[in-house]
Request: fold
Amino acid sequence: MRMKNRWIALYVENQVGVLAKVSGLFSGKSYNLQSLTVGPTEDETISRMTICVTSDDITFEQIKKQLNRMVEVIKVIDLTDVPLHMKEILFAKVLSISAAEKLEVFQIAQVFHVQVADIGNESVLLECKLTERRNNELIALLKSKFKKIEVVRGGAVAIEAISTSCR
Reply:
């Protein structure tokens, strides 16, 4: 069986303990979550979770069935092969840099279309809302060019595309 990243959107009751129950299902079965984000929807009584798990087809089907059996879960949507708009938030600090290196960070920010969120005498903080792949490329570039970087990543959020030309 081929292991690959699979994406699920869950609509759940916005109640205390629901996140713990959902993540507990994954840890209890030894499924490794790659990413999990959660936030309220337009209806404050409902939250939407975006979950990425690496699994084979059979395990993924089991995960979806187990999630569907949870009382707090309103709807499970398999996003794996659906046209999506997906972004991941990332902050990257480039530390202990010279003025010339700072200019290089600004150029990189411009090429990647990311914001300079903060700046110090010897550091720059970038704020990125890119795809996971593009964030990986940015991190690799920063690591190759600068000695000291600090990265904080959030999970991806995704929504089904209106047109079919997205991913």
Summary: Residues 39 and 91 are 19 Å apart (CA to CA). The helical segments are 18-28, 57-69, 99-112, 132-145. The mean pLDDT is 93.
